[in-house]
Amino acid sequence: MRKRLGVALFSFVNLERNSPIPLFQQLDAQIRQAILSGRLPSGLRLPSSRTLAIELGVSRTSVVTAFEQLIAEGFLEGKVGAGTFVDANLTNQILPPPQPNRLKAGRTKPGVTLSRRGALVAKSRSNNPPQVPTAFVPNQPAYDQFPFGVWARLTARRYRRPAVEMLNYGSPLGYRPLRRAIATYLRDTRGIKCDEGQVIVVAGAQTALALTAWLLLDPGDVVLMEDPSFMTMRDLLIGLGARIVNVPVDNDGMQVSAGISGMPNARLALVTPSHQYPLGVTLSLPRRLELLAWAARKRSWIVEDDYDSEFRFSGAPLAPLQTIDRNGRVIYVGTFSKVLFPSLRIGYLVVPPELVDAYSAAVHLLTRGVPTLSQAVLADFIDDGYFSVHVRRMRVIYAERQEALVDAIGRQLGGLLQVTSARAGMNVIGWLPSGIKDTTARRKIEETGVLSFPISFYFVDLPPRQGLLLGFCCTPVENVQPAVQKIARALGG
Questions:
Q1: Quick one: angle between helices 477-491 and 438-446, nearest 10?
Q2: Is 83 helix (H, G, I), strand (E, B) or coil?
Q3: Per residue in 435-459, pLDDT tens?
Q4: CB-based contacts of 385: which residues, under 8 Å, 6+ apart?
Q5: CA-CA distance, 89 to 75, in Å (whole number)?
Q6: For the segment 43-80, what is each residue's pLDDT rounded down to a tens digit?
Q7: pLDDT at 395 > cutoff 50
Q8: Does position 464 have pLDDT exceeding 90, yes or no?
Q9: b/e sequence 105-133, b meaning 16+ C-beta within 10 Å
Q10: Which of 215, 288, 432, 467 could form a disulfide with 455, with the two C-beta atoms 3.0–4.6 Å apart?
């Protein structure tokens, strides 16, 4: 009778016969969870392995293997001649059952103690799930046009017989041939003054900014930021303890005078001078010179985020700030996420020579760098000429896709969305008529399967006008008109 009662206690066991997880591992995990939850109390005598195997319809070996693992972990104890028991010493050690969390997603559960920095990070507005590439998602490249065959060959070549140094931790600064390739590319295409020793390979632009803030900012230091701007970057800096001063943007870019007059002793300025995000304007030359003069005078730093400089469709861009900086105050940031694909997670910094050792130490302590084999594949992609070919090809394709989007909006959304072609970048702004909130428009459009970002999301202060940020790169020309028709239906056109 006692044995039957013991077997009845195992009614919670539910083994999936078709699962790739072996039956003994499933049984092991379910018994462990039953002990932790108190369902199998300490001191309980378990059925014999033979009896339990018959009741569960599994081999005795599966039960014995599960019992042996649980004995080794201290959940069970075997007594010679008496049987197998839940360890009697667990009475005061079992954790209390988890309490149901009725808070909304993203909220911190009561009782969770975060640091001041952690509490700031937890409040981040930009903690969104990855976006599935649908029509018009901003900042998404043309995945359908990437040369995956070439990339696969280069990857296979590197992974077939990798050198030992490729499998170990690499230099914190990055794989030297990739740094050399990046330096050459930047000199040839952007006029950047640097050598490979100033290039540091990191896991994207966010990592670049995090390292910079960690090295150059103390908690409470002031950072000048464009408003609007990348909210992820803003939240990152706030999470690291920086005080953000929001500087308005007009047709000539950041209003530098307003920023430095209000906070002349700011420690750092974060700008997107070549193609302001998300408005797309260019920082004028007088303002560039004013910003550089301020940084030199105050010994402050400028982080220049040149996030999509590869894609310009008309006219020549102004030279980067870094090229006219005579005092070594500019830290230049670039990324391959938008020109290739985001999950590559490779970006880079160009830093003044006196900061190289500090950045190397920071990378070593915080991230240990980017996987060397991935860097090697990218270096081959650049050195063998595939990168420059891909960029030139994407400029043509993106120009065609932008033209198709602007044309379709003009024909199908007249009066509901005002769009002007962008001279550079990956997105356009669709301005809404007065009286229509961009958050409401975004929600209605998203219900049709098309994703856009409200312009108000990027502003700290109220935007002067409501609008939607639409990416044109990830949507083939033949898919543009059907997607615009969905927007028209959502907005009542």
A1: 120
A2: strand
A3: 889 999 999 998 888 888 899 999 9
A4: none
A5: 9
A6: 889 999 999 999 899 999 999 999 999 998 889 999 88
A7: yes
A8: no
A9: eeeeeeeeeeeeeeebbeebeeeeeeeeb
A10: 467
Q: Which domains does the chain have, with CATH numbers?
A: 2-90 (1.10.10.10), 147-388 (3.40.640.10), 393-491 (3.90.1150.10)
pLDDT in the model for residue 368: 87
The DSSP result for 228-261, as a single string, is S--HHHHHHHHHTTPEEEEEEEETTEE-HHHHHH
Cα 456 to Cα 454: distance, rounded to the nearest angstrom: 5
**Residue 261 in tokens:** 């007059």
| Nearby residues of 308 by Cβ (< 8 Å), 6 or more positions away | 139, 275, 338, 339, 424, 425, 426
Q: Report pLDDT for 99.
A: 57
Query: Could you tell me the pTM of the whole model?
Result: 0.79
Per-residue confidence at 215, pLDDT binned at 50, 70, 90? very high
Tokens describing residue 269:
């300025």
pLDDT at 344: 92
**Whole-angstrom distance, CA of residue 174 vs CA of residue 184:** 15
Quickly tell me which residue has 């190289």 as its tokens.
356
3-state helix, strand, coil in the chain (%, to 5): 45, 15, 40
361: part of which helix (H) or strand (E)?
A: helix 356-366
Mean pLDDT of the chain: 89
> What are the tokens at 148?
């995956």
Band of the pLDDT at 2, cuts 50, 70, 90?
very low
Maximum distance among all Cα pairs of the chain, rounded to whole angstroms: 92
Peptide bond into 482 cis (omega under 30): no
Task: Quote the radius of gyration of the chain (alpha carbons, Å).
Answer: 29
Residues 114-142, mean pLDDT to the nearest whole number: 75
Which residue type does 299 have?
A: R
Closest to 276 measured CA to CA, from 253, 296, 293, 258: 253
Does residue 170 register a pLDDT over 60? yes
Q: Comparing C-alpha atoms, which of 27, 103, 116, 35 is closest to residue 67?
A: 27
Query: In which residue are the tokens 């790739």 written?
Result: 20
- Residue 279's nearest CA partner among 224, 333, 230, 330 is 230
